[in-house]
Amino acid sequence: MTRTEFWQGNTACAEGALAAGCTFFGGYPITPSTEIAEHMALKLPKKGGVFIQMEDEIASIAAIIGASWTGARSMTATSGPGFSLMMENIGYAAMTETPCVIVNVQRGGPSTGQPTMGAQGDMMQCRFGSHGDYSVIALCPSSVQEMYELTAKSFNLADRYRVPVFLMADEIIGHMREKIVIPDSVEKIPRKELEQGVLPFKAGEDLVPGFATFGKGHSVHVTGLTHDERGYPCATNVKLHHNLVKRIVDKVETAKHELSDFTVINPDAEEVFIAYGAPVRAVQQVLHDNPGKNIGFLQIRTVWPFPDFALKQFKNARRFLVPELNFGQIAREIERHVKVPVVSIPKLGGDLHFPQELTATLLEGS
Amino acid sequence: MTFEDWYRKDRLPHIFCAGCGNGTIINCTLAAVDKMDWKREETVFVSGIGCSSRASGYIMTDSLHTTHGRALAFATGVKMANKNLHVVVFTGDGDLAAIGGNHFIHACRRNINLTVVCMNNQIYGMTGGQGSPTTPLKCLSTTTPYGCAEQPFDLCDLAIAAGANYVSRWTSYHVKELEKAVLAGLQTTGLSFIEAMTQCPTAFGRRNKFKQVIDHVEYLKAHSLLRAKRDRLVSEGKEVPPDMFVVGELMRRNRPAMGVAP
Q1: pLDDT at residue number A364
Q2: Where are the domains of chain A?
């Protein structure tokens, strides 16, 4: 039996994590994500899980990585300033292939910026913020319902691909209250345990090694140094480093067709909006208000790895219009993949785009 | 089993320089671990970055070689997520007291149930000999070429003030005492902190008038002041020599701890 609730996005995020079997939350208070930590502090101990408030965000992500190696589904939640502090250990999670979920309820930056106002300014940071080459998965919810569903999905993706997975929400979705339908259960795809006799960092065809959970007798050595398939440091081997980094990038990039999540509306349209997160709502309003016009829309839920192949569905597209709560971070990514003009429609300061602003952009071009 | 059976032998030889004291401290730690009757699969070594932190990679258990200064934060996650695992953290003076200082005091405050062995060589060895938060006044390093002008940390005082249940300090000379101190730490519920003063001939000794490795070890021995002797000096109102450091068991108490197996 499903049930209906009227929840804030951040509550839905925490409940989605609990439904997915998250048993460890390490975090540090920061606006506008704090409600997620508070909800986990309330609920996790009653379910036999662990909530721990760490001394900062560096320690928070360190703790969830440590917990993940014991087999726990682990998670932290933060916003811009805390996200910046996490960059060091995000790279560690990528290099050691540690599944974990990092929620960023984005607020206006740079620096302390606008703690209570929504933004999408960390989209590139989540892809490239830690040093070196690596690849990650990032999901963007545009409703309280998606906060729940995409958070739950994040854990499956983290375990499946052994990567840090980002739920890149924003203050608008995090603090918005709306109707949500809670399913009986959510799909849980378990982490693939390392088979006995196989080296702990030796990957098969899917490029993802089995996971050597601590406490199971694998005697695995985990290091952020460049390592061989045994997990042993091998930091000056040119070929080995190249192959390792290529694999941790490729395992995500080559999986984009199977993991990408997006919705295509009116694929034969000439004018096409592309949005993720809160701006999706403004585009939906434009479509609703202009039933006679053939307006295309691509809603992206998995922004990283970027689903470039989805753009090809709009064969008649003359322009792509990209409203974002930043100065065109994903518009620039779209430009790399298409030959027609890409119009960035930035909005900073905390307000969502008004539907008439987007409609005006449409008229200008026609 | 003996302490040697805990080594990950296919990773030897190790990277430590000739004359380094880290091997002595790892031996003492493993000898103590061996007396605990712990199963290999229930034991986890965690470390940060630096010479000392390479230790975890030479031990045949699950081991987590983490980022600089963060070992205790990672170890907190491991221990809290699976309280049945025995967690031992290797760290050094730079890793623990400089970049990891915040994690250190908060791990002590939480009194989380694990053991920390700090190899204090008073220098950044891995990066070639820069001054650390425990480099003594006037000592030479590549970043204190005119002599260290900063007061050093007393790591044991810090651990006691922050709330650790067990605190001891010995040196690489006092191998029997060090092994016993680590054993006492492993047996104590809550955070146990064992500081092992050690020689670094490559990065510290040669710049600070220790021509031979043994000169530095002799220095550590000669400048060790037993806790009982320190207490006597204090009670008699006499001055404790400023260039000496107190060795022995400095704290044993039973504050409430986190991460204790049910």
Answers
A1: 58
A2: 1-259, 261-365
A261-365 CATH, one of 3.10.150.10, 3.40.50.200, 3.40.50.920, 3.20.20.70: 3.40.50.920
Q: In terms of CA atoms, which chain A residue is nearest residue B63? A: A221
Helix (H) or strand (E) holding B245: strand B245-252
- The CATH class, in words, for B3-252 is alpha beta
Residue B242: pLDDT over 60: yes
- pLDDT exceeds 90 at position A366: no
pLDDT of residue B251: 98
Overall size of chain B counted in residues: 262
Cα gap B95→B132, rounded to integer Å: 9
Sign of CA dihedral A327, A331, A336, A338: negative
Q: What is the pLDDT of residues B85-111, one digit of tens each?
A: 999 999 999 999 999 999 999 999 999
Under an 8 A CB cutoff, do A52 and B103 touch? Answer: no
For residue B44, the chain A residues in CB contact (below 8 A) are 214-215
Reply yes or no on whether the pLDDT at A365 is more than 60: no
- Is residue A317 within 8 Å of residue A157, measured between CB atoms? no
pTM, 2 dp: 0.98
pLDDT of residue B224: 98
Number of Cβ within 10 Å of residue A116's Cβ equals: 11
Q: At what angle do helices B101-110 and B71-81 cross, to 10 degrees?
A: 30
What are the start-end ranges of the H helices in chain B? Answer: 22-34, 71-81, 93-94, 101-110, 155-162, 175-187, 213-222, 227-235
Inter-chain residue contact B62 with A215, CB threshold 8 Å: yes
pLDDT digits (tens, 9 = 90+) for A274-328: 999 999 999 999 999 999 899 999 999 999 999 999 999 999 999 999 999 999 9
Contact B73 A59 (CB under 8 A): yes
B17 contact A CB<8A: no
Spatial separation of the C-alpha atoms in residues A311 and A334, rounded to whole Å: 8
Mean pLDDT of B149-177: 98
Across the interface, whether the CB atoms of A26 and B60 are under 8 A apart is answered: no
